[in-house]
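Weekly puzzle thread! Below is a chain. First person to post its structure in C-alpha coordinate form gets bragging rights.
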Amino acid sequence: MTNTKLLEIAGLSVELVRKPIKNLHIGVYPPSGRVRVAAPPALSEDAVHVAVVTRLGWIRKKQREFEDQARQTERLYVSGETHFVFGKPLRLLVQTSGKNRCVIEYSASDRLMMSVPEGTTAEQKGRWMSAWHRERLREHATPRVARWSERLVVPQPKWGIRAMRTKAVCV
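Winning reply:
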Protein backbone atom coordinates (compact mmCIF):
# COMPACT_ATOMS: atom_id res chain seq x y z
CA MET A 1 0.00 0.00 0.00
CA THR A 2 2.09 2.90 -1.28
CA ASN A 3 0.80 6.05 -2.91
CA THR A 4 2.58 9.23 -3.87
CA LYS A 5 1.40 12.82 -3.99
CA LEU A 6 3.21 16.05 -4.90
CA LEU A 7 2.69 18.94 -2.46
CA GLU A 8 3.77 22.57 -2.44
CA ILE A 9 4.85 23.54 1.10
CA ALA A 10 6.46 26.93 1.86
CA GLY A 11 7.67 27.26 -1.72
CA LEU A 12 9.10 23.73 -1.78
CA SER A 13 8.00 20.91 -4.02
CA VAL A 14 7.58 17.96 -1.65
CA GLU A 15 6.95 14.36 -2.67
CA LEU A 16 4.66 12.76 -0.07
CA VAL A 17 4.75 8.97 0.02
CA ARG A 18 2.19 7.17 2.15
CA LYS A 19 3.32 3.78 3.33
CA PRO A 20 2.83 1.43 6.28
CA ILE A 21 5.46 2.86 8.63
CA LYS A 22 5.32 4.04 12.23
CA ASN A 23 6.94 7.48 12.02
CA LEU A 24 7.23 10.33 9.53
CA HIS A 25 10.56 10.63 7.71
CA ILE A 26 11.84 13.69 5.80
CA GLY A 27 14.68 13.22 3.32
CA VAL A 28 16.61 15.57 1.04
CA TYR A 29 18.28 13.77 -1.87
CA PRO A 30 21.12 14.62 -4.23
CA PRO A 31 21.93 15.97 -6.71
CA SER A 32 19.19 18.61 -6.87
CA GLY A 33 18.00 18.56 -3.24
CA ARG A 34 14.69 16.81 -3.95
CA VAL A 35 12.50 16.66 -0.79
CA ARG A 36 10.63 13.45 0.02
CA VAL A 37 8.40 12.78 3.02
CA ALA A 38 7.47 9.21 3.94
CA ALA A 39 4.44 9.21 6.23
CA PRO A 40 2.06 6.68 7.74
CA PRO A 41 -1.39 6.61 6.12
CA ALA A 42 -3.11 7.76 9.33
CA LEU A 43 -1.08 10.99 9.56
CA SER A 44 -3.01 14.04 8.29
CA GLU A 45 -1.71 16.26 5.51
CA ASP A 46 -1.74 19.18 7.97
CA ALA A 47 0.65 17.26 10.24
CA VAL A 48 2.94 16.69 7.24
CA HIS A 49 2.84 20.44 6.47
CA VAL A 50 3.76 21.27 10.07
CA ALA A 51 6.62 18.73 10.08
CA VAL A 52 8.07 20.14 6.85
CA VAL A 53 7.73 23.76 7.97
CA THR A 54 9.42 23.03 11.31
CA ARG A 55 12.34 21.33 9.48
CA LEU A 56 12.53 24.04 6.79
CA GLY A 57 15.87 25.40 8.03
CA TRP A 58 17.44 21.93 7.93
CA ILE A 59 15.95 21.22 4.48
CA ARG A 60 17.29 24.47 3.00
CA LYS A 61 20.72 23.83 4.58
CA LYS A 62 20.87 20.35 3.00
CA GLN A 63 19.81 21.73 -0.39
CA ARG A 64 22.58 24.38 -0.20
CA GLU A 65 25.10 21.65 0.68
CA PHE A 66 24.09 19.70 -2.43
CA GLU A 67 24.36 22.83 -4.60
CA ASP A 68 27.86 23.55 -3.25
CA GLN A 69 28.99 19.94 -3.60
CA ALA A 70 31.61 19.36 -6.27
CA ARG A 71 30.18 17.36 -9.15
CA GLN A 72 31.99 15.55 -11.86
CA THR A 73 31.49 17.04 -15.26
CA GLU A 74 29.27 15.11 -17.62
CA ARG A 75 31.25 12.36 -19.28
CA LEU A 76 31.64 12.64 -23.05
CA TYR A 77 33.99 9.63 -23.37
CA VAL A 78 36.60 11.46 -25.43
CA SER A 79 40.38 11.16 -25.27
CA GLY A 80 41.94 13.08 -22.38
CA GLU A 81 39.11 12.68 -19.87
CA THR A 82 40.03 11.31 -16.46
CA HIS A 83 38.17 8.18 -15.41
CA PHE A 84 38.61 6.40 -12.10
CA VAL A 85 39.15 2.66 -11.82
CA PHE A 86 39.12 1.44 -8.22
CA GLY A 87 39.99 4.98 -7.11
CA LYS A 88 42.97 5.36 -9.45
CA PRO A 89 42.71 8.21 -11.98
CA LEU A 90 43.38 7.07 -15.55
CA ARG A 91 43.44 9.13 -18.75
CA LEU A 92 41.07 7.86 -21.39
CA LEU A 93 42.35 7.26 -24.89
CA VAL A 94 39.54 6.62 -27.39
CA GLN A 95 40.36 5.01 -30.72
CA THR A 96 38.07 3.96 -33.53
CA SER A 97 38.33 0.49 -34.93
CA GLY A 98 36.78 -1.43 -37.81
CA LYS A 99 35.30 -3.96 -35.37
CA ASN A 100 31.62 -3.93 -34.36
CA ARG A 101 32.36 -4.12 -30.64
CA CYS A 102 33.99 -2.08 -27.91
CA VAL A 103 37.24 -3.15 -26.25
CA ILE A 104 38.40 -1.46 -23.04
CA GLU A 105 41.73 -2.22 -21.38
CA TYR A 106 44.38 -0.74 -19.12
CA SER A 107 47.65 0.35 -20.66
CA ALA A 108 51.00 0.27 -18.87
CA SER A 109 51.25 4.07 -18.93
CA ASP A 110 48.23 4.69 -16.64
CA ARG A 111 45.88 5.02 -19.58
CA LEU A 112 42.50 3.51 -20.15
CA MET A 113 42.23 2.49 -23.78
CA MET A 114 38.79 2.33 -25.38
CA SER A 115 38.52 1.00 -28.91
CA VAL A 116 35.07 1.65 -30.41
CA PRO A 117 33.38 1.32 -33.80
CA GLU A 118 33.22 4.40 -36.04
CA GLY A 119 30.24 6.68 -35.27
CA THR A 120 29.72 5.49 -31.68
CA THR A 121 27.77 7.97 -29.52
CA ALA A 122 28.78 9.13 -26.02
CA GLU A 123 25.72 7.30 -24.64
CA GLN A 124 26.88 4.00 -26.17
CA LYS A 125 30.40 4.54 -24.86
CA GLY A 126 28.94 5.26 -21.42
CA ARG A 127 26.96 2.01 -21.43
CA TRP A 128 30.04 0.05 -22.49
CA MET A 129 32.18 1.74 -19.85
CA SER A 130 29.57 1.02 -17.19
CA ALA A 131 29.39 -2.65 -18.20
CA TRP A 132 33.20 -2.82 -18.15
CA HIS A 133 33.31 -1.33 -14.62
CA ARG A 134 30.66 -3.80 -13.42
CA GLU A 135 32.66 -6.70 -14.86
CA ARG A 136 35.90 -5.52 -13.18
CA LEU A 137 34.03 -5.20 -9.88
CA ARG A 138 32.52 -8.66 -10.30
CA GLU A 139 36.00 -10.11 -11.00
CA HIS A 140 37.39 -8.52 -7.83
CA ALA A 141 34.43 -9.18 -5.55
CA THR A 142 33.57 -12.80 -6.43
CA PRO A 143 36.67 -14.39 -4.84
CA ARG A 144 36.35 -12.14 -1.81
CA VAL A 145 32.71 -13.07 -1.23
CA ALA A 146 33.64 -16.76 -1.56
CA ARG A 147 36.62 -16.39 0.81
CA TRP A 148 34.59 -14.56 3.48
CA SER A 149 31.64 -16.91 3.30
CA GLU A 150 34.11 -19.78 3.79
CA ARG A 151 35.84 -18.02 6.71
CA LEU A 152 32.53 -17.22 8.37
CA VAL A 153 31.21 -20.72 7.66
CA VAL A 154 28.05 -19.45 6.00
CA PRO A 155 26.58 -20.33 2.63
CA GLN A 156 27.81 -18.10 -0.18
CA PRO A 157 25.20 -15.33 -0.55
CA LYS A 158 23.63 -14.19 -3.78
CA TRP A 159 24.82 -10.70 -4.60
CA GLY A 160 24.63 -8.23 -7.43
CA ILE A 161 25.79 -4.84 -8.63
CA ARG A 162 23.35 -1.98 -9.06
CA ALA A 163 23.61 1.67 -10.00
CA MET A 164 22.57 3.76 -7.00
CA ARG A 165 20.28 6.61 -7.96
CA THR A 166 20.90 8.79 -4.92
CA LYS A 167 24.62 8.19 -4.48
CA ALA A 168 27.34 10.30 -6.04
CA VAL A 169 28.86 8.42 -8.92
CA CYS A 170 32.63 8.24 -8.99
CA VAL A 171 33.48 6.12 -11.99
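Puzzle host: Confirmed. Bonus trivia for everyone else. The helical segments are 45-54, 56-68, 122-151.
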